[in-house]
Write a structure and sequence with these properties.
heterodimer, A: about 375 residues, Glutamine Phosphoribosylpyrophosphate, subunit 1, domain 1, seven-stranded antiparallel β-sheet, six-stranded antiparallel β-sheet, 11 helices, 19 strands, about 30% helix, globular, B: alpha/beta, TIM Barrel, 2 domains, eight-stranded parallel β-sheet, 23 strands
């Protein structure tokens, strides 16, 4: 049977995210409890987590998390890493053997920085070099897969129910200020660890519930700009769109969400002249990045968390705040499980993002559908 | 030549004598003078040699007394020397001329649209009901920059000029001369009402049509007929015509008989003279020359209008399109080998060019490989027969489609392929005032509008079924397509999977 990457596999899911906007770290127990409540939204064929602020001792290094099929390929990769990077540390990621998690690959992490002379030779900046390295390994090298590559963050994922995956990776032993989680319900049985969520590139991680009907339009647009969609998953495409618009185009967050989940033309027609001009331009120029079909996504970065729904809200998501904490999940129960008395709780509308930035006084709720809408300045 | 022609009639006209009331409608309606009333015998006689099977008499006969059939008379069976092949030789032996024809290639080549199937959502992805949810077909044609710069809530640089279409369908180029003014008025009004565009072809813009300027694409072709400053300013976009699918590589010829006063004024040529469009533009012998013309037209119109370049789909179309994009065109229009025409040499029409499906797939793929797809919009034509063809074209990578044959069918064309005779009984491909007035432009506009609206609804239904609610999410979305009955190579060129994969 073809595995993920050789064939496109649609899936339904559960997602959850918790962040402390002051940047105070907390253990992985909460996020596991939260996602575990939504057990029935996944089917044991994929679960995963992204955690931010977990590697303060290596915060200047890129943390590469690898799946290796066997030791031979591990040795090859280590040689390749040594050639291109200064390796501050490398080790097997600590795991806890359990009955429910089977067939785990070799799982290693390396904290690395690109060698200066390699950057000079290739005439690219550090981030671009890392992106290209990740793309190359994942698309060209059989048996090795980089599933996390950001600074001071990490993804932990595999085949199994998310709560079992959390236990397997001993996540309660880590402390982070932002956690996202995913339980997967693929409509096929690939059983490949790389296919689980979150999908990451640099420090951008995506967990996603939905099936993107614009997939091939988005993919072909991205491939024009050098991205290789090796997994053929919606999540991968969302991560690359985000990376392209944010890192490479330098667009502000609210512009990015309007490209990915644009207001309708009949809404744009009702806006004032200035807004109309901008929204029209966004749709005309970034139409290939409009994400269509049902989705509810959580994007994590070193700056915070963004939740976004498709334009007509075909997948559930609910958000809540309490004190310095912001919660977003597929179901209310997943929030109440870890936050008994939220101060605010709301259902974001279709296309209405929930943006939680670190150090912001309040998580921003950007109302997308109102006349007073303002395009923020590099928010 | 005194000999009787060897060419036998193509059609048989059967008149049901019991039904015929001798009202002479058929006699009056047939510009080919097929039907004749014999007063002495009080009988209507039909001369089948002239019949082109345009169905005008059949449709208008009040008692349904007429039937036109293929002439059942057969030459001795021969799989090589078919009746058609033999007939062509007889005609050329009698005339010594090039065989002429009208409308698009009618040979039984494969129609690839019919070997492509569309996707729909089931369970994992909800379909969207266009009766309940917005379903957006708005399309913008023109150059798209690589990025936007938005600072302090303001767009730092204006977008290049864009054509805004309410649905991804435009009326393709048909000149005043090749079709009647009433036919053009019908399409212009329909384009205006439905928020799209019609194209002047190489016929200039008649003074009555300037009011439709906002919905007009003005064409500049090799004959430069009717091209002047006001003409360029009048349209919303300018199209440079290099070639057309029905006759790639050759020019055009409007016979002097069709150049009556209105045509002569609009084309700016003397009445009764032949209007000959040369095969190449006299000033375009290479891609850099094309660039100069593109920028001359942009200069002339203050960079306020997108410039389109129309080419026929030929073997090397992908590389040519890439060159055109780099030469500064904002829109590339590609016309497939089934594209219609008012007049073309039969052998050219039937043997030159390639299917639009392959041309489109190859061009879209090539422009993406070169990362310049966003610099141009792709418009394709060349026998778009229904809304499903349009959905497939957009999924293969087109931004919009051009329709002409379909539009004329909506106006009453019966596809008799005799446009070049000027005797169109339906008032479309003619300048004879008696014939042209048979097409009422108001009714014509209504029929053309109806067609656009019907297709719009169908496109919305198909999009909704795929779980898509904006046309841009279909564009180039080839995973929505599957091939059926295609070879590995055909699938590869189209960039689609086989059904079941």
């Amino acid at each position: 049977m073809l595995r993920e990457g050789q064939i496109r596999i649609p899936s339904g899911c559960a997602i959850s995210g918790i962040m402390n906007k002051k940047g105070r770290v907390f253990g992985g127990g909460d996020i596991i409890n939260s996602i575990a409540v939504m057990h029935d939204r996944s089917n044991g064929l994929g679960g995963g987590f992204a955690a931010y602020g977990i590697y303060p001792e290596f915060k200047e290094e890129y943390a590469f998390h690898f799946f290796f099929d066997h030791t031979t390929i591990k040795n090859e990769i280590e040689a390749l890493l040594k050639k291109n990077f200064i390796i501050a540390s490398g080790e097997a990621i600590p795991i806890r053997k359990s009955k429910s998690i089977k067939d785990a690959p070799l799982i290693w992490r390396y904290f690395v920085r690109p060698k200066h002379r390699v950057l000079v030779k290739q005439e690219v900046d550090e981030e671009e070099f890392v992106v290209r390295f990740v793309m190359r390994v994942n698309s060209e090298i059989d048996g090795a897969y980089i599933f996390s590559s950001g600074k001071n963050m990490g993804a932990f994922k595999g085949v199994g129910y998310p709560e079992d995956i959390g236990e397997f990776y001993r996540l309660e032993e880590y402390s982070g200020y932002l956690w996202t989680a995913h339980g997967r319900f693929p409509t096929n049985t690939p059983g490949w660890w790389g296919g689980a969520h979150p999908f990451t590139l640099l420090d951008c991680s995506v967990v996603h519930n939905g099936e993107i009907s614009s997939y091939d339009a988005n993919r072909r647009q991205l491939e024009m700009y050098g991205y290789k969609c090796v997994l053929q998953t919606d999540t991968e495409v969302v991560a690359y769109i985000f990376d392209y618009l944010m890192r490479r185009q330098g667009l502000p967050l609210d512009v990015i969400v309007k490209a990915m989940a644009s207001p309708f033309w009949h809404e744009i027609d009702r806006m004032n002249k200035k807004e109309k001009e901008i929204l029209r331009a966004i749709r005309v120029v970034y139409g290939g990045f409009l994400v269509n079909g049902p989705f509810s996504i959580l994007i994590g970065t070193n700056q915070g968390m963004i939740a976004l729904n498709d334009r007509i809200k075909l997948r559930p998501s609910i958000a809540a705040t309490k004190g310095d904490y912001l919660y977003v999940a597929s179901e209310e129960a997943a929030i109440r499980q870890v936050c008994s008395k939220p101060e605010h709780m709301w259902m974001p509308r279709g296309g209405e993002p929930v943006i939680g930035l670190l150090e912001a006084s309040q998580p921003t709720r950007v109302p997308v559908r109102t006349e007073q809408e303002k395009i923020a300045i590099n928010s | 030549m005194s000999l009787k022609s060897y060419v036998t009639p193509s059609f048989l006209i059967e008149r049901n004598k019991e039904r015929c009331i001798k009202c002479k409608v058929c006699v009056q309606q047939c510009a080919n003078e097929v039907h004749r009333y014999d007063e002495e015998d009080d009988e209507i006689i039909s001369e089948e040699h002239q019949c082109v099977n345009c169905q005008r008499c059949v449709t208008l006969c009040p008692t349904g007394a007429l039937t036109i059939r293929k002439n059942p008379n057969e030459l001795r069976q021969n799989s090589n020397w078919t009746a058609e092949a033999v007939r062509a030789i007889y005609i050329q032996a009698e005339t010594g001329g090039i065989l002429l024809t009208g409308m698009g290639n009618d040979r039984p080549y494969p129609v690839y649209w019919d070997n492509i199937l569309l996707n729909a959502s089931q369970v994992t992805n909800p379909s969207i009901d266009p009766l309940r949810e917005p379903m957006e077909l708005k399309t913008h044609l023109g150059r798209k920059p690589d990025s936007l710069s938005i600072k302090e809530g303001k767009l730092q640089k204006k977008l290049p000029p864009q054509l805004e279409l309410e649905l991804p369908i435009m009326f393709s180029a048909m000149s005043f001369g090749s079709i009647s003014l009433n036919a053009i008025k019908s399409l212009a009004e329909a384009a205006k009402q439905e928020g799209t565009y019609f194209n002047t072809g190489e016929g200039g813009l008649h003074r009555d049509l300037y009011q439709y300027g906002e919905n007009t694409i003005v064409q500049v072709a090799s004959g430069r007929f009717g091209v002047h400053a006001d003409y360029l300013q009048a349209g919303a976009a300018i199209e440079i015509k290099i070639g057309q699918g029905a006759k790639p590589g050759i020019g055009g010829h409007l016979p002097g008989e069709k150049v009556e006063r209105e045509v002569s004024e609009t084309r700016m040529i003397p009445e009764g003279t032949d209007a000959i469009s040369p095969a190449p533009h006299h000033d375009i012998y290479s891609i850099e020359d094309l660039r100069q013309l593109i920028y001359s037209l942009k200069e002339a119109t203050n960079y306020e209008k997108p410039v389109s370049v129309k080419i026929a789909a030929v073997h090397n179309v992908a590389a040519i399109a890439s060159g055109i994009a780099r030469a500064g065109a904002d829109i590339i229009a590609i016309d497939g080998y089934r594209g219609g025409t008012g007049a073309a040499p039969l052998r050219i029409r039937d043997n030159v060019g390639i299917p639009i499906e392959f041309a489109l797939a190859a061009v879209d793929t090539r422009l993406r490989q070169e990362a310049i797809r966003n610099q141009v919009s792709l418009v394709v034509g060349g026998s778009i027969r229904n809304s499903a063809d349009i959905v497939k074209a957009i999924a293969l990578g087109a931004d919009a489609v051009y329709i002409a044959s379909s539009a004329l069918l909506a106006l009453g064309c019966h596809m008799c392929q005799k446009c070049y005779t000027g005797k169109c009984n339906w008032g479309i491909a003619t300048q004879d005032p008696q014939l042209a007035k048979r097409l009422n432009p108001e009714l014509g506009a209504q029929r053309a509008r109806n067609l656009l609206r019907a297709w719009k609804h169908e496109i919305q239904e198909m999009l909704g079924g795929m779980g898509i609610n904006a046309i841009e999410s279909l564009r180039g979305n080839r995973l929505m397509l599957r091939g059926i009955g295609l070879t590995e190579k055909e699938l590869q060129i189209l960039g689609i999977k086989n059904a079941g994969e």
